[in-house]
Amino acid sequence: MENTLRDEVAIEEKRKDKIPYDHYKALLKDNDPQVVSKKTTCPYNQETHAFTVTVMGSPYMVTYPQGDVTDSAGEDFDNYKLKTMILRYLINAKGAAATGENISYRDVSGGNAYFACFEGRCLKRFAFTFNYNVDGLKKAMGILDAEPQTIGDMSWRFEVINNMFMTVILWVGDDEFPPEAQILFDANFPTAFSAEDMAVMGDIFIPALKELGKK
């Protein structure tokens, strides 16, 4: 009974996640693919009519004008949060180059309103996930060719999606103090993603780091 209920909840969550994905699929066709490619730095193949978008080091294909997001082999997958983020980036990116300057989440318009969500889904989740898997985190950052930073006990700057960089900082916990984390964004991040997008970014990059750490 418990397993059945859990499966039903998972199916309902997938259904809800698919709604925004279908919405943005329908919007992609309203954008010129060459302009999209220039603004996002995501290559567009005129022969296959598809963009190549790289997220956390892995390439994904997006067909134009259909907006179907698949893996690099053209196979479908059901991570609709990731698919939606990819489409929103293609549609919303303004072409701002990475600056190398960091901003905090509260610096973003709307950041105060969504901070509780950001704190739970990004900061605390990152801290407690990798406080007990430091070796996996280091391995993942090596695979991403992330740039080590000098903040906290350990920190790295890495590319989340084409031309969009994030810096993660971890203070390892002990018997007296819980682990803490900070996540900073390149100053160009808000030109492509809203505060609401950024608040759930942990749903994208944290599972990806966990998987990379297992390789």
Automatic annotation (TrEMBL):
InterPro entries per record: DUF3786 (IPR024264)
Domain named DUF3786: residues: 32-206
Name of the protein in question: DUF3786 domain-containing protein
Organism of provenance: Acetobacterium bakii
Organism classification: Bacteria, Bacillati, Bacillota, Clostridia, Eubacteriales
